């Protein structure tokens, strides 16, 4: 044996590293249950009163009426997410609220999933600290009760990695990990890009190959079959996928954005804090790599790097929720870096960070639980004006997802014209006999009108965490409208 090999065998494990793999002591189980319940309370507090984004409206509409040809939902169709929403909606809970409750509930399960993932390599107290640092990051917390698929998919992803990357995991853990991997992909199919390399590496090692691939292929096959049977023929799916890919490619140029506009900076509110976090995570990644812990290389090279690549090169990196996998894994590495320098004091620093986040976020959650989003407020106001004056409602096409959801849920009668339809089969309403609604300066179809009423977002922190064109919606009474955009195909 070489001198170098002997040194590696005798060198002491880092202070932050897990030393034993025995079962959790009973008091740790109790502590984990208590902390999980506390996280659950924080997630319930983050469930908003209404939907705020077009994707939430599309998902809720898909629960009510799954129609791929009409874009409900858009590719990659999120089959399990819509199926879960339909199941809860069948109990009488409104579609949007069903998805919000599912998101908050599965966010709760992220705590034990992340804890057991990081406990593969870290001391238990540091694994818990890393999990809480992620879950109480302001942006992560404020998005945890929304009707998006990102939060529930993160819970399944973390649980899958905790099982698949366990060096001592047997056949049963591999089977369960593969099932959870399939679930996260069926909830959010984009996660296949994050799991592809880890699964390939584990398969290449030749251990538990059948236990890995059989459940994964079976669950994904069932999801694909369901999509074809209850969704649309393969040709329709392919056409929709190509259109969505073209749209996504046009919005995935993150190189032109400043760091302050990217997801980590938005999730931590202040770009300076995000820079410190990135530096800590990078340093922690180096420390983690040099420790040569079993399974650690797969986490860093095969899981984290692809997750970073996805948000930087394939999607819009300014959207905070797309960064959840990177933020979750990065928080663990940041704790490693912090613990390698500060040792036990790192726990105090994490506790202070969580406390500060709590002070900042809780008042904003209170606002979010009572506020109605600008699109919904604007549509209601426009309807009242239209009924009172017998005006025609004409809206910027950005409003279409919200109006479709309102129609499907019985809150609107469908008597609305979009700017892209003006001059088509519906013609152009007479001057001054319309009430116009537009978002984000999309008012080129308006030639004049009465005094506009602006409906703005009433949750200031939400604008920083997840800015959208719907943060401000304007209603113009007695408007004169005109064709100003290319008409939709076939209209």
Inertia-based shape:
globular
Low-confidence stretches: 1-10, 487-491
Radius of gyration: 25 Å
Number of helices: 20
Q: Distance N terminus to C terminus?
A: 78 Å
Tell me about the biggest sheet?
A: 6 strands, mixed
The chain-level mean pLDDT equals 92
Task: Count all strands and give the number.
Answer: 6
Structural class comes to mainly alpha
Which percent range fits the helix content? 55-70%
Query: Could you state the order of secondary-structure elements as H and E?
Result: HHHHHHHHHHHHHHHHHHEHEEEEHE
Q: How much β-strand is present in the residues?
A: 5-15%
Written description of the protein model:
The chain is mostly helical. Helices cover 60% and strands 6% of the residues. It has 20 helices and six strands. The chain has helices at residues 3-10, 26-44, 54-64, 79-89, 95-118, 124-135, 138-143, 150-164, 171-187, 192-204, 209-230, 234-250, 263-267, 271-290, 296-314, 324-342, 345-370, 374-389, 400-408, 460-465, and strands at 392-395, 417-418, 434-439, 446-448, 453-456, 472-481. Helix 3 crosses helix 4 (79-89) and helix 14 (271-290) crosses helix 16 (324-342). It starts with a helix and ends in a 10-residue tail after the last strand. The model is unreliable at 1-10 and 487-491 (pLDDT under 50).
